[in-house]
Write a structure and sequence with these properties.
single chain; alpha+beta; 2 domains; four-stranded antiparallel beta sheet; 10 strands; 27% strand; globular; signal; Secreted protein
Length: 212
Amino acid sequence: MSQDSLLARKGAKALAAGLVLAMGLSACSSATNKASNAGPASSSLLPTDAQPHDTVSADAPSESGNSVESTAGASKSLSQLADFPQGDDDSALTQFFLPNGTAIQIPSELVEKIGKARNFGPLTGVEHVGEGAYMASFEGGKYLVYKNGDVEPVIGKIAETWIARGGVNSDLGAPLDDEEAISRGWSQTFEKGIISWIRDEKGKYSAEIRKK
């Protein structure tokens, strides 16, 4: 074989090897780009409503200026709620997870208010108190009461007076509105009466109850 023929064959082999290498590099680069665009395998999308606990404007005048600013965090005694009653209308209830992980069924309106009651402090319990009424309790004697699709807070000395009489099942029933400031204190309307926390002429505060 002539020297020219030998050189031609070697050149053809070198060209073929170069083409194979180029094709391999191109395939590798394409795979790398696809993997990069795919993102990390562990990433996941959270629902837009997965971050509860927005601030609520629920000042407590009847608490004599006591202000609570803490997230609704770990509960102290919630394990007993594992067998929570289903209530009077199961179709209107929503699954809610207590801070200890226990799942219960409560009205969606109450779930929303609990999520917004950040300045109420840690949640300590949720009760089904009969006749379609539910009550969420927080540290420091603050309550959110659900009945007939409405949720109202009961706080401070008015709450203390109301709970002492039996709460929702008392002769006053459930709250119909938030407390309001009056000339010498604060007042809150309930189903069957009004509780006022008022100051007398000597500056002393006491509870006044008026039945409807």
